[in-house]
Design goal:
nucleotide-binding; 14 helices; 30 strands; helicase; alpha/beta; Rossmann fold; globular; about 600 residues; Helicase_Restrict-Modif_Enz; single chain; ten-stranded mixed β-sheet; ATP-binding
């Protein structure tokens, strides 16, 4: 049949990637497309190609309606199951539904489905009791080969990090000790910068033109990284002049703009903001706004009868007004996903629109193109650096630091993120074998029993399954002993003497401990290489030193331990332990 739309090249690539993945695997997969990239067209094409029953889920009625409309435009009939749209149709081959409505009416979904598509799938948690999992599991019982595909612009969740484990370009997301991901594979991804460079989206103009900013840093966050409404209101109540000054600037800058969306922190805050705006041009929408009134206000805004739309957490997804060209963010959030969804409201193309002004008055400091996900920036000087794995050659991207010549002088990576056993297309060489992560570790904790390298947070050796002694326990026990010395090491220096190499450990308070390695003895040389050759340049360039001269030439690249523990002998201190890459509670000096 002739389709009403010609898919853009990347949309067709996303469809092809889905077909390719599910022909060989039943593992849940994710497609990542920026807001405005046309996810509904990808969904419609996949639904058109399907031969068995499929279910398309999302969390708001606007997206249910939008996805259904795209499918219907192919001349095909699909059902809608959504209380918000007052329709409960589950008999069609393709059903577009809200997750809330399906979860509450599972008895009406007793058929065998071949595919579940989840729009805005970053909302799926890994918990068995979530609404999405309560739908997926019963349908999987009816069809063990059930496929689950997610689509999102922001593939991460606050508190979880990335929502998938394996990326089709051959690397792993996250660390060994993270919780289980709701999706296994990312099978296609298009970066925001690609869409902007090729003119598919409007360029965001992020400016630091704030006359004033709120400081939310003193407020406590909950486990999801958000703030208590009462505490936010108390803080904002003390800074009404700040709010007035911000809105005065917004109005001034809006003079040359078509439409402004303002994201407020709380309902009280939104009401205050609204008082400072031109009443005839302003609408306020909160979770308490009646649906009929909300729809009417949104229509007036889209028809350009209103210029300012103030909202509290209700228009971040499923809202499409292409003429929006000014986003003012007055709410704090630790959620990268939410922040990007907010900015995405202003990035759709529209006639005469050249950019979208984005001003963050809440100091969220989110990088739209390279968001800090999973691992926060270790310090303000850190930047993304490329670190090649000495084991497999994969080019990892970690937080780190460079010198004036652009060379990496420090990085905070722990394990190589590369995947082994893949062909040039990113497929496993053996179809029945899952991808295997490279086991090279830049930072590691050696097992005291078998010597295997483990993650620095590991409690049990991955090789021999023996419990690994906690560094905190080592330090605590040593500090109790009268004949023990524990220093927090600020650096090491070398003193070569014939075949012997003396290492001097310098403590933060001026203490010193020493030990020697005799390079003429293979056993001592092997111990030195295990401790320091393996960790040279933070593990970037491991070396098996054969003589002392080699060590002296690269002494500036030797990695010093964080702590050194020694016991008093008759006339000297004997080194008992060296603790590297310490993460525990004794981070500061004793």
């Amino acid at each position: 049949m002739t389709t009403p739309f010609t898919l853009r090249p990347y949309q067709q690539e996303a469809v092809d990637a889905t077909l390719k993945h599910f022909r060989k695997s039943n593992e849940a997969a994710v497609i990542v497309l920026p807001t405005g990239a046309g996810k509904s067209l990808v969904i419609a094409e996949l639904a058109r190609l399907a031969r068995r029953k499929i279910l398309v889920l999302t969390h708001v009625k606007e997206l249910v309606e939008q996805n259904h409309a795209k499918y219907q435009s192919y001349g095909l009939r699909g059902g809608i199951f959504s209380a918000g749209l007052k329709r409960r149709e589950s008999q069609h081959q393709v059903t577009f539904a809200s997750v809330q409505s399906v979860s509450a009416n599972l008895d009406q979904f007793q058929h065998e489905y071949s595919l579940i598509i989840i729009d805005e799938c970053h909302r799926v948690s890994g918990e068995d009791t979530s609404q999405y999992q309560r739908i997926i599991e019963p349908l999987r019982e009816k069809n063990p080969a059930l496929k689950v595909l997610g689509l999102t612009a922001t593939p991460y969740r606050l508190g979880m990090g990335w929502i998938y484990r394996y990326h089709y370009r051959g690397f792993v997301r996250g660390t060994d000790d993270e919780q289980a991901k709701p999706f296994r594979h990312c099978i296609y991804e298009l970066p925001l910068s690609y869409m902007i460079r090729r003119g598919y989206l409007t360029r965001p103009e992020l400016v630091d033109a704030a006359v004033a900013q709120y400081d939310f840093s003193a407020l406590a966050q909950n486990s999801f990284g958000e703030y208590a409404e009462k505490e936010v209101n108390q803080l904002l109540g003390k800074h009404q002049r700040v709010t007035r000054a911000i809105i005065e600037q917004v109005v001034e800058l809006a003079a040359k703009r078509q439409a402004v969306m303002i994201f407020a922190a709380t309902v009280d805050h939104a009401q205050e903001i609204t008082r400072y705006l031109p009443q005839s041009q302003t609408a306020l929408i909160t979770g308490a706004t009646a649906l009929k009134e909300r729809d009417a206000l949104i229509q007036r805004f889209k028809q350009r009868e209103l210029k300012y739309l103030v909202n509290v957490s209700v228009l971040t997804t499923g809202f499409d007004a292409p003429h929006v060209d000014f986003i003012a963010i007055l709410r704090p959030t630790q959620s990268v996903s939410l922040y990007q969804q907010i900015v995405g409201r202003g990035l759709r193309l529209d006639k005469g629109k050249t950019d979208c002004l984005v001003i963050d008055y809440a100091g969220n400091n989110v990088n739209l193109h390279h968001p800090e996900v999973g691992e926060k920036k270790p310090n303000p000087d850190s930047e993304p650096v490329q670190v090649f794995c000495p084991g497999c050659g994969f080019a990892n991207i970690f937080w780190g630091k460079k010198d004036s010549q652009g060379q990496v002088i420090e990085h905070y990576g722990r394990r190589c993120q590369g995947l082994l056993g893949l062909d040039d297309d990113g497929d496993p060489l053996a179809a029945d074998q899952p991808p295997v992560q490279c086991d090279y570790r830049f930072r590691f904790k050696a097992c005291q029993h078998c010597g295997a390298e483990n993650d620095i947070a590991a409690r049990k050796c991955h090789q021999c399954q023996t419990a690994i002694i906690d560094p905190d326990d080592k330090l605590k026990d040593a500090l109790k002993l009268k004949d023990a010395m524990v220093i927090r090491c600020s650096g090491i220096s070398l003193n070569p003497n014939g075949s012997k190499l003396k290492l001097i450990y310098h403590g933060e308070d001026g203490e010193e401990l020493t030990e020697s390695f005799d390079f003429s003895k293979p056993a001592q040389r092997a111990v030195f290489n295990r401790l320091y050759g393996r960790r040279l340049a933070k593990g970037q360039t491991p070396v098996n030193f054969k003589d002392i001269e080699e060590v002296v030439r690269v002494q500036s690249l030797l990695t010093a331990p964080d702590f050194v523990v020694a016991r008093k002998q008759k006339h000297y201190w004997q080194i008992q332990d060296r603790i590297f890459d310490y993460q525990g509670r004794y981070r500061k000096a004793f």
